[in-house]
Each structure stands twice: as structure tokens, then as C-alpha cells.
Design brief:
The structure holds two protein chains of two kinds.
Chain A (H helix, E strand, L loop, with lengths): L3 E3 L5 E9 L1 H5 L8 E2 L10 H20 L8 E5 L6 H7 L6 E3 L6 H15 L5 E8 L1 H8 L15 E2 L2 E8 L17 E6 L4 E2 L8 H20 L8 E4 L3 H14 L8 E3 H4 L12 E2 L1 H17 L5 E10 L2 H5 L5 E10 L2
Parallel strand pairs in A: 2-3, 4-5, 4-6, 7-13, 11-12, 11-14
Antiparallel strand pairs in A: 1-9, 2-8, 6-8, 9-15, 10-15, 14-15
Chain B lengths: L3 H11 L5 H28 L4 H21 L3 H8 L1 H4 L2 H15 L4 H8 L5 H25 L1
Classes of the chains: A alpha/beta, B mainly alpha.
Chain lengths: 343, 148
Amino acid sequence: MKRIHRFQRPPRILSAAAAGGKEERRGPHGEEFDFCSPNDLFGVQTWEMAEGEMARASLSFALKKAGIRAEEISLLFAGDLQNQCVASSEGLCSVGAPFVGVFGACSTMAEGLALASLAISGSSQVSLAAVLTSSHNCAAERQFRTPLEYGSQRTPTAQWTATAAGSVLLTGEENPKKTGWGPGGRCPQISEVVFGKMVNGGITDAANMGAAMAPSAADTLLTYFRESGRTPADFELILTGDLGKEGSALLSLLMAREGFYLQEKHVDCGMLLYDPEKQDVHCGASGCGCIASLLSCHFLPRMARGELHNILAVGTGALMNPSLIQQGGSITGIAHLVHLEVR
Amino acid sequence: MQNKQEYLALTEKRAARSPVLRDCFFAFVIGGLICLAGQGLRSLYLALGIEERPAMTLVTVTLIFLAALFTGLGLFDDLARIAGAGTLVPVTGFSNAVVSPALDTKSEGMILGVGSKIFTVAGPVLLFGTLAGALYGVLYYLYGVIFV
């Protein structure tokens, strides 16, 4: 069974934008975010609603940059970490676009991009697809872990859920007239996608998500390299979502055992979002807003400017449920791959 | 991935351990300072002419209040991140365990939010604390009947 979906007419990314919170603004890429809320509330009263506002803000900025109206969106793929993906439905209802809710924990951005690419290549009705995901530290922590102000010590392998959202607009047109990349900007394309298999490494520690996701990331990357005949050396970057310091080290180890050496090609968004020296985030960032925001505000713009040409983006998710963990269950990992190119 | 057992062993071996000595040091110092503050409060209340027993109750109440206040100001968790058991073990930890879910669930209303979720963290302590108290009461009664 072949697993790589290769597109005859690859979908183009014509715009992207990111929104974040105050910790994200303080991070190394803070200045690149299109909008950051100074108090993480985005002008509303609760964290749950704030996440919806943040998601909507990122989409608004992506549309505005390209000069596109929300009514032109033929399909909107969105997801988040809250129960019933309520940030997406709460925040995006007013957009008025046909909505496809997606859940792949923190792999949702890659999953959405892959699904949107399939939709664009498979249906002539889909002229413009929007993909966005978000995560909010305050909404996620109280749902998955402990109350926000609860005083406890986190273990060294713990990660910090990012307050961030990223929106990407995709089209099937080869040379889209309106783009958000400015004069001379080139639209990155999605050449290939791989949907990952779920892999359960038996991890039961919810404070070690990196270890729970690393086997699935390795599985998807190995599948891609073996089937395509390529190696890490063929790419400028191999980007992962939120493996963090621990998960990244485990991924390198698992890949090296199979003869694929990622070395400095591998970059994890979870390790880029915050400054480990100044921000107390232990193993780095996590959450589906992590890769979504950094793709949207850093990596895709760099591709559009011609600084990067050929990268793999792997969204990594820990399909974690707090009740199941308490019942003695373990955390299943998932990773989807998107091959981005500028030609 | 070859083998679940092998992978688990690998991740457990790799995973960085909490810095136990440092954690113990800060727990001792900060927890000790909280106790010292309690002692100071006791002396203060006694100096104000309050009797021994009500003074002790006042000390507890004051510490509970201060922990609740600092939780509300968003400072308690910052201190607890360093102090660990130093803030958890004294009565301050219990206060924080009750106030923090209350703050979180305030947006869901007084009844279904705060009312039903205020003890999500402290609930086990209350339940088993009460049970242990009742059990001790029974044992104390039996001891009285049999030996006295």
C-alpha cells in the first residue's frame, strides 16, 4: 500500500497569519506574529471564548493580507484542543464558511493542510480552502491538568501549551492573482502529504508528551523516506510540531536506529516558540497552535521570500484523554506529514 | 518502533529527574519561612491579649486568608513552582487547592461552576480526612469502653 499522496497540480498557499498571547510575544518569534493579546483574553471574558477570538483574528489577518473576503472561502478546516473543538465553532461561526471540524490533537494543522489539499485536488468546487488551528494555555491546562492558579511543581519533561493560532489559505490556482506575500512573494505549494498511523508507545505520563509522540513522528517520517527514496539530506528543514526537547531527542534516536540521521535538519516548533533561558517552559511549547503559528508567521513567509525552498512539516499529536489516563490507559501518538516546496 | 517494553524502558531511563536536592532545599526554606510567619502571627495575637487557643485558630485563619489572597493575585503558583512541598504541606496548600478551582470555574456560574467544582482538587482530602476522623472517633470510643 502506497501512503504518499502526490499532487499532479499541487495546491498553493496564498496567505497565512498567526495570533498569539503575551508569552508568545516575549518569545524569539514574537515580533513575527500578526497579533498578540497583551493579557491572553483577546477582549473577551473567558479563556474558552478567548481562544475562539484568537482563531478568528488569525483568519481575519490571513484574509486581509491577501485582500480576500471571508465569503470566498469554499471550505474551512479548523480544530483545537478544547472539548468538542469549541474554540473553532465558537470563534468561526460568524465567518459563515462551510466548516469541516478536525481533531488530531496537536497534529491538527498538518491534518487540516493534508485534508484541504486532497479536497482541492479532488473537487473543482473547492477554489479556496482555509486551514486553521489554535490552542490556548489557560483553556487547555484547566481541561487537561490542574486549575491555572494551582501551585505545583512541574516535572522536567513537562511542556507548556502555547496560546497561539495560525491560519493558512490554500488555492488550486497555479498563479493566484491575490496573495498575502507582497510584491515578488512566491506561493509555497503542498507537493505531497502523508497521513500518519496511530502509534502507541505505552507512555502513561501526561507530563511526557514528547515521548508519547516521538514513535508516531518516526513512523510517518520513515514511511515517507522509504517510499519516496529520499533522505533527510534532500530537505532544507524537517519541521516537527511540538515534540519538545525530550521528544526531539527520542525522534532522532528512533530514526538513527533505522539509518536515517536527522541531525541539524530537524527543527521542532515546540523548541522555537519560547526562549528556554528566560521563559520557564521546561521541555518547550506544545499545543496545536504551536506549529500552526510558526508555519504561518515564520516558515511560510520565509518560503515566500525565497529563503527556504523545500521542507517537510510534520504535525505531531498526543491523543490524550485525562479520564483514560486515570483509568490506566496510555497515550496514543499521531503524526501527519506535509511536503512544502517553492518552485 | 520495535518493542513497547523496550521503548518504555528507554524513555524512563532518559527522562530528566526532578532536581530532588534543590527542591528539598527550597521546600525546607520557604516552608520554614511560612511556619516562621505563623509563629510570628501567634506571638502578635498573644501580645494583643488574645488567649492561647483562639490565637492559634486566628493564625490558621490568617495563613489561609493570605494563601487565598496570593492565589487570587496570581502570585501563589509562581512561588509554589519554586517552593513545591514548602507551600503545599502547610495549610497554605489547602487554601490554594480550594481557591484555584473556584477562580477557574467562576465563569461557569456560582452554582454549576464554583459550587460544584470548588473541591475538585481538595475533595479527596476532605472526604478521606473526614472518614479518617470518624474512624479515629470510633477507635477512641472503643478504647474508652474496653480499657477505661
